[in-house]
Amino acid sequence: MGEPAERLDEVQSALDQRVQSLLSAHNGDPLAVIETLLMAVDARAERVSFGFVRGRLPAVERQEA
């Protein structure tokens, strides 16, 4: 027999709390939450990317043999 539907593990509970916190911070506007999350992901990608993801690697010239 499976676990009851009401029982949440700690990870799911923590995630739910974070989502509720974001919604509260943005007065319940889910679009504002999504925009904030997208900006945070974009900023993170900017910091960790060396250009490959964003197509900003310097051009590599091939030398013909």
Question: What would you say this structure looks like, in words?
Answer:
The longest helix has 19 residues, at 30-48. 54% of the residues lie in helices and 0% in strands. By secondary structure, the chain is an all-alpha fold. The chain has a domain at 18-48.
Number of strands: 0
List the total number of helices: 2
Residues in helices, as a percent range: 40-55%
Alpha-carbon distance between the termini? 68 Å
Would you tell me the overall average pLDDT?
Answer: 77
Question: In this structure, how is the largest beta sheet organized?
Answer: none
Main structural class:
mainly alpha
Q: Output the helix-strand order.
A: HH
Could you give the topology of this structure?
Layout: H1 10-25, H2 30-48
Structural features:
mainly alpha, single chain, flat, 65 residues
